[in-house]
Design a protein that fits this description.
22 strands, 35% strand, four-stranded antiparallel sheet, alpha+beta, Lipocalin, seven-stranded mixed sheet, Rossmann fold
Length: 332
């Protein structure tokens, strides 16, 4: 597309359109010269001439699987997949040329892939709560391999009005991982609420409510009360503003809170799009909800609950298949 100003007006003109099936939920595009290197939803890279949209090569099958992030530096491409595999290739439109690959040690499973960073001729990779550093200097290959060093840092967290307190490594390891904000497509949101058979008399909780789209949709569609719980202050502010824009602030409340501490007793419906470890941490409290309560999860199930139904949603918004699980708390 190009943008042309005509007096006070602005016109947007299409130059070309290519249906490539790109990944809409992962930042995975980099420009080198006249070519774009990007990834499809399956995690396979493609090379496109950015001026014409013509494909130079790809999609290229690789050992890495899942979401993919790409970094370009010094004529090379660094591919990071969400399964923990790193791959080095040449940044050339002629053909895909792979130079090496390895798997991050003790990789922690994630939904998306964090972008690699190169600084001071070192490659930095974040893997959950770890930061790994690799020496990628050419002369490093001429030196004896050094034994990796592990540096452990305490996490500082707020401790109320009395100041701060450092969490020990043992305490940190006992905490479930923090999820990243990946919005649920709106058509998947609709399927989740329909699957839960939400009624006007229900109270809907969304744990990890992000931009508030699920609780806002529940209020708009069914006229019910809905509460979103989110720990990120910016997302809380954003979603509160959106409730006013959509004129549902009389029905929707957004609370800034750790979802692991929320009292679930008043809820009739709980929706979740959290990491599997977070779901497992919540499972004992979900099982204690009042009989007949419905729990709907996106992408990841919860063990120990009574599974009523599983639905595969082919989202027109994301172009991907999404799994939705419905659980119902049984009557004793």
């Amino acid at each position: 597309m190009n943008v042309v100003r005509d007096g006070k007006n602005v016109a947007v003109n299409q130059i070309y359109h290519q249906g490539q099936g790109l990944d809409a939920f992962q930042d995975c595009t980099t420009l080198v010269g006249d070519h774009l290197y990007t990834g499809l939803r399956e995690g396979f890279p493609v090379c496109l001439a950015w001026k014409t949209g013509e494909k130079a090569w790809g999609p290229q099958r690789m050992e890495g699987r899942g979401k993919m992030a790409i970094l370009a530096a010094d004529g090379c491409l660094y591919f990071r997949h969400s399964d923990g595999r790193m791959t080095l290739a040449q940044a050339t439109p002629e053909k895909y040329v792979e130079r090496g690959t390895f798997v991050i040690p003790d990789h922690v499973r994630t939904i998306g892939a964090t972008s690699p960073v190169i600084a001071g001729r070192r490659l930095y990779l974040r893997d959950d709560n770890r930061l790994l550093c690799y020496d990628i200097r050419a002369e490093a290959l001429q030196q004896p391999a050094a034994k990796p060093r592990a540096i452990s840092l305490d996490v500082i967290t707020a401790a109320g009005k009395d100041g701060t307190v450092a969490l020990s490594n043992a305490n940190r390891e006992s905490q479930p991982p923090r999820g990243v904000f990946v919005p649920t497509p709106h058509d998947v949101v609709k399927q989740m609420l329909d699957l839960a058979s939400v009624k006007k008399s229900d109270v809907v909780y969304d744990l990890g409510s992000g931009d508030g789209r699920i609780v806002i949709a529940a209020a708009k569609e069914f006229g019910c009360k809905a509460i979103g719980y989110e720990i990120d202050a910016e997302l809380v502010a954003l979603s509160r503003e959106q409730t006013k824009t959509d004129k549902v602030d009389n029905l929707v409340t957004i609370e800034r809170a750790d979802v692991m501490t929320v009292d679930l007793a008043p809820a009739d419906v709980v929706t979740l799009y959290l990491l599997p470890q977070q779901n497992e941490k919540l499972a004992p409290r979900l099982r204690k909800m009042k009989p007949g309560s419905r729990i709907v999860t996106h992408q990841f199930g919860v063990s120990g609950l009574t599974l009523e139904k599983t639905v595969i949603v082919e989202s027109k918004e994301s172009g991907e298949k999404h799994t939705v699980f419905l659980y119902v708390v049984p009557t004793p």
